[in-house]
Structure formats: structure tokens, C-alpha cells
Amino acid sequence: MLALGKTRAPLYIYNEETLNEIYFDLSALDVVAGLFYPFHANSHPKVLRKAFEQNTSFRCNSLLEIDRLREILPALDPGRILFLADRAPMKDCEQALKQGVHVATRPRKDTTQNSLNAIEGKGVSIYMEKGGTIVPTASSNRAARGIYICPDARFSSLCSQAEKISLFRELSRNFPNVSILTLGNDVSGKSDFYGDKWNISEIGHDLEAIQDACPRFELRLELPIHLVSYSGALVVKALESGTAEGGHYVRIHLPLNHSLIAEIHESTHHLVNLSRPGFQNDIMIQKVQPQDHSGSATMYLKHPCPVSKGDILLITQLGAYSSQTRSTEITRNRLPELYLKARSLCPVKL
């Protein structure tokens, strides 16, 4: 990464070794029956192919995302796609089902008999937010084969693990005919059930508590967004560093735009100086500001970080998109992207 930074910064880098570690550790959890990768978390083709190679299913939020996913992965079985049809028209649900895609949709009191007949017995799940009272409708009980559930603000505000588990028990009672429970992120990807836990064994303990409370459910897990974020970073080059008004700053070569500023400010990131590996230099970034039209930006840090002109710096936890990210087939926030392949530790096929 240091060599890449000297010649190609600024650029986003996604680390396959970190993705391998995430998939391996999550797949090793006995309580997890299957994994889902959220397309909107990062739609870089090589990131999607890595998920496909790990036998992971995919969650898409629109028919356009489904089309793009199948274009990138033509060998993907449509049965490995879950369309989260959050308030999508029923015709979109029916179109996805015709392709063989599974659909998760909210319980609707206004579902017509014709629509119900069109989806009954097919791959339909109920989509709901976790935190409030769940009131199943006749149509949802009749058509559903599973439940896709995500946290909301009410769920996240509960302090007691027992309170949270009681909501899952309520879910099990209200849907006695459903056997598959998929635990997901919210639609925007801002939150999940696990806060910012990197220790996957802790996530495993949370899942085991849900399984113990609801043994009838087969648990499937969508990759937590914050774990995906650990797989990528933004590599930049330092121009200068110093102090101003009692605060520490580093000026970097980075042409900022609104989406990039919002992406950095939306969650916590740290600065690592790759050119000085012997220093304690994992420093929290407080904010980033553009420097007029000079193509540079100033990062304000929580603590001082030893930086000299030309040093290569890493802005961490940018493997996942934010709600403000703007991506194309070749850029993200108008910057290039690079997928860093894992090192081959054993060149011999076993």
C-alpha cells in the first residue's frame, strides 16, 4: 500500500485479506445458517465476486440493483438474491419473483387477492423493523416463508439484552408458521444489531441468545455494515502538518467534493501513517475541510500524529459506502478504486 500511495494516491483500496477474515469468522459461527451480502454496502465488481465465491447470498434494494448484480455475476442463481422491497410497488415484487428472486416486503393491509395469489407459495419473506409491536396481517401469515428483520431507533435505544430478546420471542409467537429469520441492516445501512463490535465471537454470543430464545428459527445473517467498512481505506499523500488554535491538523492532497466530505463525516475514521510504522499513529479524525480550489484538504485530528511532507497516510474504515457515496463503474466519489488481492500462501493445490 505504501508503494501504491506514492504513485497513485489518492485512491480507495479494498483489502481481500480482510474480507477473507470476515467471511471465514462469520461462516464459522455454528448458529449462522447462511450469509447475505448487501449490494449497496459496496458494489465494486471484485468485492461482489468475493462474496459470490464465499457462497454468500445477496440483498438488493431495487430491480436496478438486481439487474446490475446479475450483469456482474452471470452465474449467480437468482435464488441467492433477496429483494428488499421496502414499499416497492407490488408489480416490482411480482417481476422479481418471476426471475426466481426471493422478495421481502412489508405486511400490507391493502394487498389484493390477485396480488396475494400471484405471490403465494413463492419466495416471499416479511420485512419489518425491530423495535415496535408486530401485528401480522392475514396476508403476511399466509404468504410468508421467512422474515427479514432490521433494527430501528427504538430497538437500538433498549439498554437491556433481556428487553431485546423479549422482542424476538414476541416475533416467534406472532408468526408460528415461519421458520427462517434473516437479521439485516437497516435500509440505509447506517445501523445493525451489533453496534460497532469487531470481535465476531461477541456477535456470535448475541446470535446464540436469539437462537436460544427462538429455537424454531433458522438464523441467516446479513454482513454487518461496520464489518464491511473495515475492509477498505482511502490512501492519501501528506502536504504538511502543524497546529492551529490549539488543534492538530494535517493537510493532504485530496480534491474534496460534497459526497466525499459527507462520507468521511458520517462515521468514525482514523489516520494511520504508513511511512512511519514505528510510531503510535492510529489517530481519530475529527473533521475534514476543503482548501478552496487547491485540490487539497485539511484533516483535524484528536491527537498529534507525526507527519512529514510526502508521507503516505491511510484513512481507515471506508470499505463500505455511506448514504452519501456516489459511485460509477470506475470511480467512487470521483476517485479511483483498487482491489488488493490476498497473498497466495500456498501455491500448491491440496
Question: What would a concise description of this structure say?
Answer:
By secondary structure, this protein is α/β, with parallel strands linked by helices. Helices cover 30% and strands 27% of the residues.
Q: Tell me the number of strands.
A: 17
CATH C-level of the largest domain:
Alpha Beta
CATH architecture designation of the largest domain: Alpha-Beta Barrel
How large a portion of the residues is in β-strands, by DSSP E? 25-35%
- Structural classification: alpha/beta
- Biggest sheet features: 8 strands, parallel, barrel
Give me the oligomer status: single chain
Shape: globular
CATH fold-level name of the largest domain: TIM Barrel
Helical percentage = 25-40%
How many domain modules? 2
**Mean pLDDT score:** 83
* CA-based gyration radius: 22 Å
CATH homologous superfamily name of the largest domain?
Alanine racemase
Tell me the series of helices and strands, N- to C-terminal: HEHEHEHEHEHEHEHHEHEHEEHEEEEEE
Q: How far is the first residue's CA from the last residue's CA?
A: 30 Å
